[in-house]
Write a structure and sequence with these properties.
Blueprint (H helix, E strand, L loop, with lengths): L1 H4 L5 H13 L4 H19 L6 H26 L7 H19 L3 H21 L5 H19 L4 E2 L5 H8 L1 E2 L2 E2 H19 L1 H11 L1 H6 L4 H27 L1 E2 L7 H12 L10 H20 L4 H19 L10
Antiparallel strand pairs: 1-4, 2-3
Helix pairs in contact: 3-14, 4-9, 4-12, 4-13, 4-14, 5-6, 5-7, 5-12, 6-7, 6-12, 9-10, 10-12, 13-14, 13-15
């Protein structure tokens, strides 16, 4: 009786479904690439020095540091979480790297990365075992890490001049290309291989897409989420190392600006905040877009206060294009 009274109630959902499929056929990374091309073209018209080799090297060098923390943040977002502790971890690593580079030598690099992974694992335990939402858990650990950084060194500290050779691992160049770009490329490839070519990496996408179906399929939800936060900690630690090496010193507040920047680079690149969609390539282009925006607005002389409005608009547009509304209740 109900179906006979409303004969169109079967065909209508099919039509909506078909139109929805047509809307999502264009990958979100295409929008990012289009915006990157348009923005770069406009900045080049505004100032011819924008495309100079020196300026392009500046963009890529800044982008390499943001890419490291962005790849980590992406890992947490892919499982439907978020990591607000990346700024505090960057600051903490920046300080201890600077202090330990003299006594430990080249060993300071892997040790600092391991420290970042351990703090990422702690975040994962708070989320999976203590059952605290990732927003609150990482907000708390981020505050603790910032305090630890200030406790170790309340003000910026410089590395001894005798250790400059150790920092050349990052600051030197090879074949005319800065080593920091090689670092960025290698770490990007590692994250891409882990997330795309390994079982636990693919599980990160599955858990982010549908945690209930992942559990029913036999995926270990706890270990997968812990692994994602460990990747986040590793990315923040590498970013802290690179920025300390570039500046020849550590700063207990250096990571603060990278919390929102890392989230923005992930979202702008097309990785959905709801999880399960996106990946390292998306984050790479998101970082490039933000780096070009940040540099280009300064080169052409856009007012610093207005720059934040442009960045905020870009984030809103990106969320509109990538947000998975099927995971949220319909509000009428």
């Amino acid at each position: 009786m109900i179906e006979s009274e409303r004969p169109g109630n079967v065909a209508e959902p099919q039509e909506v479904s078909a139109s929805a499929k047509r809307r999502v056929r264009v990958p979100t990374i295409v929008y990012t690439l289009a915006l990157l091309f348009v923005v770069g073209f406009l900045f080049a018209l505004g100032n011819r020095n924008f495309l100079s080799l020196y300026n392009l090297n500046t963009i890529l060098s800044f982008g390499a540091i943001l890419l490291m923390v962005g790849l980590g943040q992406m890992s947490a977002i892919l499982i439907g979480g978020i990591d607000l502790s990346v700024g505090g971890l960057m600051s903490f690593i920046s300080v201890i790297f600077t202090i330990l580079v003299h006594p430990l030598g080249y060993l300071v690099y892997p040790i600092c990365v391991v420290v970042g992974i351990l703090f990422g694992y702690l975040n994962g335990l708070l989320v999976t075992r203590v059952k605290i939402p990732s927003f609150i858990a990482t907000l708390g650990t981020g505050g603790i890490l910032t305090s630890l950084a200030l406790f170790v060194s309340a003000r910026p500290v410089n590395v001894p001049s005798s250790t400059y050779g150790i920092l050349d691992l990052v600051n030197a160049s090879f074949l005319g290309i800065n080593n920091i770009l090689y670092f960025g490329f290698v770490v990007f490839m590692i994250y891409n291989i882990i997330l795309r070519r390994t079982a636990i990496g693919r599980n990160v996408f599955y858990v982010g897409s549908n945690i209930r179906m992942s559990w029913m399929s036999g995926i270990n939800i706890v270990s997968t989420r812990n692994f994602a936060f460990m990747l986040s900690g590793a990315g923040a630690a590498i970013a802290g190392i690179l920025i300390s090496a570039v500046r020849y010193g550590g700063d207990p507040s250096v990571g603060g600006v990278y919390v929102l920047s890392s989230i923005a680079s992930v979202v702008v690149g097309g990785t959905a905040l709801t999880g399960g969609t996106g990946g390292p390539v998306n984050t790479l282009f998101g970082v490039l877009l933000l780096s070009v925006l940040d540099n280009g607005m300064n080169v052409v002389g856009i007012d610093p206060y207005f720059q934040q409005s442009i960045l905020g608009l870009m984030i809103i547009i990106s969320v509109v294009l990538t947000f998975d509304r099927t995971k949220t209740p319909i509000i009428k």
